[in-house]
Amino acid sequence: KTLAGNGGYHSVGYEDEDGIEGDLLYGFSSTSPIDDRTFVTSPDYDTQAPSVSSAPTVTVMPSPSPQLIECDFESSLCGFTTASLPWTRTSGSTSSVSTGPSGAFEGSYYMYTEASTPNYPSKSFYLTSPELSTSISGTAEFAYHLYGLSMGTLYVQVSDDASSWTTIWSKSGNQGNSWGVAAASWAEMVVSYVRFYGVSGFSYTSDMAVDDVLVTGVLASTSAPTVSPAPSLSAVPTPAPSRSPSSFPTSNPSHSPTHRPSSAPSSLPTLGSFICTYATTIT
């Protein structure tokens, strides 16, 4: 900055940066010494959205369905019951040729129906589970054997009271001399019992068998897991750091103003006040 005399008047110029492209210059005249002048610009506030991390991923791992009953018939019937035309626990082959399995699906023992006279045609055989924990959905997995030219039909049925039954799986006719594996499922049903219901065909060659029964289900008292909602996030403006005030020396620089702002800061004295002060000094 440069100081120069001007016939008793001192032209003083100050420059300040306000973040706007171009020069900002304020000017006035005075005969009195000029103390340090400080121009303080209003701080700008930048409204910035805070960085927001995404809500944590909540993974609900389904718990395995509880086993309602599992039986391979190796040592007992596991609580299964049978009616007047019984399912029989046995090992090895059945008593009839050209029908029935030659052995268990796994292990030694299995359950089968004997269709020899007088147990055909269309005779019913029931193998009913004990009362299970009440479920609202589930699956009965099992191995089955349906071999014989006059094979009838095997049904899997479920019930909530052991009196009214709903069929969830069935298979009819000769399926060959080998074991098959099946899964019979139910959903949105109250189930407390599962049974195997066999109907013999038109002759003795309709011995059927089941083995390795596993029943699983979602218990009626099991509630769905609760997942807490993600917390709400709000953006808070972050103020920009205020600018440091500028200090100016008491020397009298001579700098003719080239730009005048549309409105001078209130902290600057007006030109009229300095002229009045000068007139008083001359007098």
What does this structure look like?
4% of the residues lie in helices and 35% in strands. It has 283 residues and is mainly beta. A hairpin with a 2-residue loop joins strand 1 and strand 2 (9-16). The protein has two domains: 1-38 and 245-283, no CATH class; 67-219, Jelly Rolls (Sandwich), CATH 2.60.120. The longest helix has 12 residues, at 271-282. The chain has one helix at 271-282; strands spanning 5-6, 9-16, 24-30, 38-39, 67-71, 81-82, 87-91, 109-113, 124-128, 135-146, 153-159, 166-172, 180-191, 193-199, 208-219, 246-247. Mean pLDDT is 76; it is low at 1-12, 14-18, 23-31, 247-251, 253-268 and 271-283. Strands 5, 7, 8, 10, 13 and 15 form a six-stranded antiparallel sheet that branches. A five-stranded antiparallel sheet has the order 6-9-14-11-12, with no helix packed on it. Strands 1-2-3 form a three-stranded antiparallel sheet. Residues 243-267 have a biased composition (Polar residues). Residues 223-237 have a biased composition (Low complexity). Residues 69-216 form the MAM domain. It holds the Pfam family MAM.
